[in-house]
Amino acid sequence: MQKKDNSDGRDSYQRPRRERITDQKAERPRRDGGYNAERPRREGGYNSERPRRDGGYNAERPRREGGYNSERPRRDGGYNAERPRREGGYNSERPRRDGGYNSERPRKPFAHKQAPHKAEAPAPKQPKVPGEVRLNKFIANSGLCSRREADTFISTGLVTVNGEIVDRLGVKVTPADDVRVNGQRIKGEPKTYIVMNKPRGYVTTLSDDHAEKSVMDLIAGKCEQRVFPVGRLDKMTMGVLLFTNDGELTEKLTHPSYNRKKIYQARLDMNLKKSDMEKLVSGVELEDGMMQVDQIAYIDNDEKEIGLEIHSGKNRVVRRLFEALGYKVKKLDRVYFAGLTKKNLKRGQWRFLTEEEINMLITGFYQ
Fold this sequence. Notes:
By secondary structure, the protein is α+β, with helices and mostly antiparallel strands.
């Protein structure tokens, strides 16, 4: 390593320079003509010793004028020139129709689209008359029937309003109108709902000449509206019973297709076998078809005291199920119906439903 003196008095060291490979190659003499210049060059390029043929590749062969297969006579007009050409193009022999495709059909005159008319403003709604309701609803509110049945009365001409027969649906009336069904005047009364703890020995029919006591006797003179029982409990059955003048609700609660849940408590004359309990759940054949209970169990481990849940609304179905298996029902109490119970009601007592209970019945938010 060589020492180098700097102008500022400080020493520095410099490595010796190494010869490059390119410097070594530079000593060789260059050949004129580039690579393999010692070999004699041939004039004319690659294989220039061979005599060249005039005319290029295969020049010895006579050239044909006219190109490929020029010996064949050419047809004037090109391919298939012997065929006579048809003027007018493809299928020009057919007569052309003026006016283009399907020109024989009469052309419709061009119609200009008219600007759309502005929609007329809807007629102002007529103010509602206080207390005005549809005729079928007015009849149903009277407690005579349901709305569907009222529509049938109207369409058959059995309903008159202020002395005139009304046979079309959708007519509205007011409480001041004279509405008659089959000649009997009805009044649209406010809807009323009552729950009762029915005692034993009372029938649920509105009129029975052979019955000594009716459930209607328990509310007579205590309710201004004319109400009627929803469904039926036989004379010896006790428990929850609903009264109302809402015909539409009555149809929903009593029609078999709705299958409302009912819970009963039954007292039998002897212990109920578990095998018979299984038969009641699987189904028992009655005179009007197969019938079964949804749930059944002993009450307080007493094999004579039975609790059961059922959805059928057939007449005396609970008693008939036990009788089909050889048991006799000594006491039967309905403790649940359409979300209602007999809580805080003694035998024979009743009360008006609360607003919450009414909404529950109308909306059906119960089991």
